[in-house]
Write a structure and sequence with these properties.
By secondary structure, the protein is α/β, with parallel strands linked by helices. The protein has helices at residues 3-19, 23-36, 55-66, 84-98, 113-122, 139-150, 170-181, 198-219, and strands at 71-78, 102-107, 123-129, 132-133, 136-137, 157-164, 184-185, 190-193. Helix 1 (3-19) runs parallel beside helix 3 (55-66), helix 1 crosses helix 5 (113-122) and helix 4 (84-98) crosses helix 8 (198-219). Bound molecules: flavin mononucleotide.
Length: 222
């Protein structure tokens, strides 16, 4: 990773995990500073990176992020107990990619929470995969959505999928979270009984394709 790229990744990480709820304040502060017409040599905040070179790039990145900039890409963030939900991931990702939309995948138990939040923020669309446990979401998926809700994300499209054994419930609960966050929602979510069958995998693929089509349409707005 080049030095400049690693700075930009660190800035996105910081913004996504700390500054996300304050986009309006960021825009107002940048407008106030720009009005002063200063020639900026360095940005030295009281936390975070000191921008000694190209401080104007940091200002542009912050403005873009405050305006909800994201890549035209999807991210699948999931967890699983016995691999049923996990077996849905590949066909969903293939469907997304076959629509020409890039897709990254993160398994929650193998991913630090701050990375999951950063990856969510970078992509225009997110699919949350969660099995049902005692009628509700798997705890790591619930933890992720709880973190996310506190950060008040905007301008992102979301969907949920997962494996269940009888009544289900996790996917419904994930959508309730998306609604509370005011995200754009792609419905209905997809639930599969235990391990996905051949037909279920076809449904997963179509779900991925349809999600990617909606993501592309939604991305046009920005
Ligand atoms: C402790 C426990 C509680 C469960 N509770 C529910 C439930 O309330 N409703 C349901 O539909 N399935 C329930 N299941 C079944 C799982 O959702 C099912 O096995 C699913 O395939 C797990 O997905 P995974 O393979 O991705 O972990 C439960 C499973 C376990 C182990």
């Amino acid at each position: 990773m080049s030095r400049r790229r690693s700075f930009s990744d660190a800035a996105i990480d910081y913004y996504a995990n700390i500054i996300m709820p304050f986009g309006q304040l960021v825009k107002a502060k940048i407008a106030e500073i720009q009005k002063l017409g200063l020639d900026i040599d360095m940005i030295a905040p009281d936390h975070g990176i000191i921008w000694r070179k190209h401080p104007e790039q940091a200002v542009k990145m912050y403005l873009d992020m405050a305006n909800g900039k994201a890549e035209e890409r999807a991210v699948i963030i999931y967890d699983t107990m016995w691999h049923g939900t996990e077996k849905m991931v590949l066909p969903i990702m293939n469907g997304i990619k076959d629509e020409g939309v890039d897709c990254r995948v993160f398994k929650l138990r193998a991913t630090p929470m701050s990375v999951a939040i950063k990856e969510f923020w970078k992509a225009r669309g997110c699919l949350v995969g969660t099995p049902t446990l005692n009628n509700i979401m798997y705890p790591s998926a619930a933890e992720f959505l709880t973190h996310l809700r506190g950060l008040r994300p905007k301008n992102r499209i979301a969907a949920a999928f997962g494996s269940y054994g009888w009544g289900g419930g996790a996917v419904k609960e994930a959508y309730e979270n998306f609604t509370k966050m005011g995200l754009e929602i792609f419905e209905p979510g997809l639930q599969v009984l235990y391990k996905p069958s051949h037909d279920d995998k076809q449904k997963c693929y179509e779900f991925g394709r349809e999600f990617a089509r909606k993501l592309k349409q939604y991305h046009q707005k920005f």
